[in-house]
Every structure is written in structure tokens, then in C-alpha cells.
TrEMBL record:
Gene Ontology process terms (BP): protein secretion by the type II secretion system
Record protein name field: Type II secretion system protein GspF domain-containing protein
Organism (species): Candidatus Woesebacteria bacterium RIFCSPHIGHO2_01_FULL_44_21
Topology within the bilayer: Multi-pass membrane protein
Keyword presence, Cell membrane: yes
Family note: Belongs to the GSP F family.
Length: 401
């Protein structure tokens, strides 16, 4: 959403000025005219720090979308028209979501379909979301599709919450280690170095290394920041390229435990989404194409695209999946084959999604169990290094006096 400043006058000729929020200039002009004013001037409002803060506050979270979908599904299931449901949700939504709902309502009231109105907000509603709503409108089962979509969003949010929650403790420990190391190197070591210099103490190798690192960071801190910034920028640029995305994905898949965990997390979302799309009447090829565009791993995305081409040629879905073992494990191809034979693809995909979810949760527990002793070992080595570097020279000084 953008803010536009306008100057206008009413029918009596009196001048007015103000601001209006809209997605583009033409919509902003229409909103001003709808107020009964004659538009004189319209321009984009400048945005400084307050504008940046407004953008941060105006972001629509996944929880907002999930709550909106559940409420909309409940109202439509109760027999309320779409426009009336959107009017009620507009009153209940918080500021960021209210702006989106207001525009969706205006588009629907002007005659557009709900899926097309959602499609104008690609940053809020994913292609999968829009495709499912469109399938529900086409099949006349929008209420059922929205209910299942809300269930899917709630399950996905709960699953991502479990994965993130399990990684909080290791992340806090690592951040703490980094902060303590920086404090030691930047603030404590320079004072100890002055003490060692005054007494002309013989320093062990570990102390010399730590002192050298401390001096470099203090005297050339700007080079450290520039170096870190340059590495981060180069990494971001490289990983935005197709080759960089593939290399990063291949590297992540090769990491013990973590690689399998990442693949199963992606496959959990993939199979759950496909199950929902198939059950909502979306053709399998369209479902694969939409899913390939939103899946967060290029290896699996390319495998889906290639599998779609083979399915178009007449090959079974299970056969197409089996050709890409790096992306799809054997159990997925096997279960899809069962779904093809029994005609229960939706149910089979839902069950295999549950299998991947359970495996992912077990791997998360195994990962956190493995990380904790590793962190303790690294922390112990770091503490031992600091003790030797700091305490040993002081001990040598006291014994020599």
C-alpha cells in the first residue's frame, strides 16, 4: 500500500487536501472522487523513517492470514454472502489486514471474483492460496475449500512453530558464545595486555594469538565490518542465482541430520498442499506447477517441474517421482502409486504428509539432542582457551614475584 497526497475541491469550490492509501495512482484518484471531491492534484507521499516504521507495522503475518481464512470459511459455511463476510472481517481485522480486506471487498463488489481480488495481493496470498480459492469458486464448493485451506494453514503454522521452537535453545547458546567472545576480545584483553606489558611477562602462544586478534579488531574494526558485509553481500548475490541456489541446496542436503530434516520439512508442506489441491478439484498438473513455484528448495522445485513434463507425456505420477530420488524418497513414489491404483490420491498424500511430519519432529529432537553436547564441547574448548590465555600469564607473574 502506498500513501498519496491529494488536493481537491468540493462542489462549492472550497479547497481540501489530505492523504489516501491505495495500491496505485488510479485507485487513489478513484477513492478521492468517491468522496465527492473534484481532484486537482495527486502525488506520492514522501516516506522517511516514519514511513519505514509504517511498512514494518503494516506487514501481514502468516497468523493474520490463517485467522482471516478460518473466519471467512466459518461465515461462508454459515450461509453469509461473501461481501457481507468481508464487511464483517474488515471491521474485526487489525490495520495491516484491514487495508487488504478493504481492497478485496471493493473489487468483489465491483464484480470481480474472490480469487481475482486475492490475486491483486500476491505479497499476502500465495499462488497456492489463490489457485485453491479459484478451484472452489469454479466447483461451487468455496465453503469446503476455505475450511480445508484454513485447516492446512493451521497445521503448517503449528508444524513450523515446533521446528522453530526446538531450535531456540541452541541459537541462544551460540549467540551467547559470540557475545562473550567479542566482549573478551574487545574490552577485557586490551586491559590485560597493558598489565602484561608493564611487567614484561612472557606470554604463552594462546595469549599472543588472542592479543593479536584483539589488537586487529580494535585497530581495524572497520575492515572487519567491511569484510563481513562484503562476504554477506557476495553470499546473497550468489545465492540469488540459479547455480548458487542449487549449490546451497545440495550443500544443505549433505549435512548429517540437518539435510534430511530440511528435505522432510519441505516434503511435509509439499504433500499436504498437493493433497489439499487434489481434494479441492485442482488438476494434478496445475497443482504440481503451482507447488513448484512456491516450494522453498530449488532441487525439489526442478524435480517437480521435470516430473510434470513426464506426466504430460503419459507417464504415471509415481514413475515420474521415482526418477528423482535425490528430491523424493522411495516412500513417496510408493504411496503415490497406491493412490493412483486405488483412486484415493488425496487421502494417500495426506497420510504420507503425516509420515513426513512425524519423521521431521523426530529429527528435530535428534538434532537438538546432538547439538547440545556439541555446543557444550565447543563452549568448553573456548573457555579452556580463554582460561589458558588469560589466567596462565597472571599465574606466571604471581609466581615470579
Amino acid at each position: 500500500m502506498k500513501k498519496y497526497k491529494y488536493k481537491a475541491r468540493d462542489k462549492a469550490g472550497k479547497s481540501f487536501s489530505g492523504e489516501v492509501e491505495a495500491s496505485n495512482e488510479s485507485v487513489a484518484a478513484r477513492l478521492v472522487r468517491d468522496r465527492g471531491y473534484i481532484l486537482v492534484d495527486l502525488k506520492l507521499a514522501s516516506s522517511g523513517l516514519l514511513g519505514l516504521a509504517g511498512k514494518m507495522q503494516g506487514r501481514v503475518s502468516g497468523g493474520d492470514i490463517t485467522a482471516f481464512t478460518r473466519q471467512l470459511a466459518t461465515m461462508i459455511n454459515a450461509g453469509l454472502p461473501v461481501t457481507e463476510s468481508l464487511q464483517i472481517l474488515r471491521l474485526q481485522a487489525k490495520t495491516s489486514m484491514k487495508v487488504v480486506v478493504t481492497q478485496v471487498l471493493a473489487d468483489v463488489e465491483s464484480g470481480e471474483s474472490l480469487s481475482k481480488a486475492f490475486g491483486k495481493h500476491a505479497a499476502v496470498f500465495s499462488p497456492t492460496y489463490i489457485a485453491l480459492v479459484q478451484a472452489g469458486e469454479t466447483g461451487g464448493v468455496l465453503d469446503k475449500v476455505l475450511s480445508r485451506l484454513a485447516d492446512n494453514l493451521e497445521k503448517s503454522q503449528e508444524f513450523r512453530g515446533k521446528v522453530k521452537g526446538a531450535m531456540i535453545y541452541p541459537a541462544i547458546i551460540v549467540v551467547g558464545m559470540v557475545v562473550v567472545s567479542i566482549i573478551m576480545v574487545v574490552f577485557i584483553m586490551p586491559r590485560l595486555t597493558e598489565l602484561y606489558t608493564q611487567f614484561d611477562a612472557e606470554l604463552p602462544l594462546t595469549t599472543k594469538v588472542l592479543t593479536a586478534v584483539s589488537d586487529f579488531m580494535i585497530n581495524f574494526w572497520y575492515l572487519v565490518l567491511l569484510g563481513l558485509g562484503g562476504v554477506y553481500w557476495a553470499f546473497r548475490v550468489y545465492t540469488k542465482t540459479r547455480q548458487g541456489k542449487r549449490k546451497l541446496a545440495e550443500l544443505m542436503f549433505k549435512i548429517p541430520i540437518l539435510g534430511d530434516l530440511q528435505r522432510e520439512v519441505v516434503l511435509t508442506e509439499l504433500t499436504r498442499t498437493l493433497s489439499l489441491m487434489v481434494g479441492s478439484g485442482v488438476p494434478i498438473l496445475e497443482g504440481l506447477a503451482v507447488t513448484a513455484g512456491v516450494v522453498g528448495n530449488i532441487i525439489i522445485s526442478e524435480a517437480l517441474q521435470n516430473a510434470s513434463k513426464q506426466i504430460e507425456k503419459g507417464f504415471p505420477i509415481s514413475y515420474a517421482f521415482a526418477q528423482y530420488p535425490d528430491a523424493f524418497p522411495y516412500i513417496l513414489a510408493q504411496m503415490v502409486s497406491v493412490g493412483e491404483e486405488t483412486g484415493k490420491m488425496e487421502e494417500v498424500l495426506s497420510k504420507v504428509s503425516h509420515v513426513f511430519e512425524v519423521d521431521s519432529e523426530q529429527k528435530v529432537k535428534a538434532l537438538t539432542s546432538a547439538i547440545e553436547p556439541i555446543i557444550m564441547i565447543v563452549l568448553g574448548i573456548g573457555v579452556a582457551f580463554l582460561v589458558v590465555s588469560v589466567i596462565l600469564p597472571i599465574y606466571n607473574l604471581t609466581t615470579s614475584l
